[in-house]
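Backbone geometry tokens:
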Amino acid sequence: MLARIAVFAAATLSVVSTLACTSRDSPSHIPEGSAVGNGSTSGSAPTSTSTSGAMSSASGSGTSGGEPAPQESAMPVPYGTCASLINGQNTLNITGLPARTVEVRYSAANQTKNGPLVILWHGDEQTPKAALEELLGSTYIAKILDAGGMVAAPSHDPMAQNAVWFSSQGDFTNDDDFVVLDQLVACSREQFGIDTRHIHLIGYQSGGFQATHAAVLRSGYVASVVVHSGGLAGAPLEQAINLAYPFMILHGGKTLDVAAKAYGASSIALAKLTAQGGGPFTTEHFTVLCDHASGATIATDALPATYAFLMAHPFGNPGSPYAQGLPSAFPSFCQIAE
């Protein structure tokens, strides 16, 4: 079962749990342009993600309701033994990686429901806690928790320094951040039983690049993505080709959203690639592009729409319920990208 406790005592939220995972060899260092191994791992730890080549197109195993779900071969398994995830700050100890902290939220609803898993990648000057509040918000975190789901926001590897996430500078030779993603998916699934049709990513600035790259490199199980002021760096290869994983991309203006990078321009360029199926994407992805024209900030008034977008786009759905037009509740600065 899957979920998270929406209301834990404040003292509980400060507890640090350790995930002791000891059977993994050192991370692989796969050159950019290699097959799906970009971000995957090699060594003695078991993994169901191929490192030798891209997976073929497939809708995945079905569910009782007939909806497509990821193939088991695409789903990660734990690197070593997963200790219990707690509400609050956890520490991931994976052999070959520096210790990584991650903010986790879930509720008692996981005892009876399997809900969504949403992973958030923080921005350049943003903390994981801030990412939870600023990119998703307490109202929508509560909705996910009530559905038996979980949200998690990893901290970046300090060795990445100003890059924040290794891949945000086009560095795919270090796969640590993708190993962390795999571990979160595998351990939350083991502990809670998540709805594998609803594994979603959100990222801001460098975290927006990381969310894009993680979606490509884990296209075998990622359902849909929200990118705030992000883009694409380098040439990661899709884990599974010809699978649709829709994007909602928000930015603060082509010449206004420039913070550490020209995030407005990179967001617009990403939307063109996803909507048209340009490389590294092997098919067209339904894409919503939102220009809130507020510079290097997060459009908090778009949070209801971003939550709705993710929930409306489960894994492997080639179409979109928004194909004929965005819901009236969406901000007027959003449009379907072409």
